[in-house]
Design a protein that fits this description.
273 residues, alpha/beta, Rossmann fold, three-stranded antiparallel beta sheet, 24% helix, 21% strand, globular, ADH-like_N, oxidoreductase activity, ER, NADP-dependent oxidoreductase, NAD(P)-bd_dom_sf
Length: 273
Amino acid sequence: VFPLILGTDVSGVVAAVGEDVSGFKVGDEVFAMVRFPEYVMKGSGAYAEYVRVSASEVAIKPSGIEHIQAGGAPMSLLTAWQFLVELGHDAPNPFQSFPHAPIPLDRKIVVINGAGGGVGHLAVQVAKWKGARVIAVASGKHEALLRELGADQFIDYTTTSVEAAVQDVDLVIDAVGGPNMERFLRVLKRGGALYLVNPLGFSGHEEAARREITVSSTQVRSNGAHLAEAGRLLDDGTIRVVIDSVYPLAEASAAHQRASHGRIQGKIVLSVV
């Protein structure tokens, strides 16, 4: 419904608190994903100088990072966290009849497709933190960064297909979506799992069932407690947010044009200062 204000992720300073709020005070530096997915069609309102946010969606910004990095974190970090660590809610799953359930990753082999993007580069780091051996899939320009972030193996999809390069892995997380997601089934061992960040268009359920592969997705949801947990990893440098580019808020349209061109490394951030 128009007019609406776009954006979901924020990092800033608390200007006022509600009467019943006890966990935060004026002057606190905080970050959050705002009212998602409840307000996805209305506009969550993050492209603004002031944003009203539920206290349950907010966490104290890690002191070890700046607002630019914190502002780029929430949606992508929560997506990686809720897919790989803890779902954290019992809301109905819009993509499937069963709740998503992260599998243990210690000593597992994990392929991350789209590893150079916003969700992907954080998923690489979260999976490494959980003890996995990580195989990152992206274009060649991302290789140095992803190895720096902890990837044990790198596949340049522009020269090598994933299914030709690896087999018998425990988990594939596809952060890209699009056509032919079914190809990842050929990479997985029997009993493995395929996590689809964008599952729309996947048509391999019958093949997955024959091979006893769990195909699962979930809708990321605002969660201040999860941000607080993950924030400790941002604070001590265990994981970091890579920033592709920064635009003034007044140039939001240019930021969207940058996003539409693809080949983003990390996150695009809007600054209001």
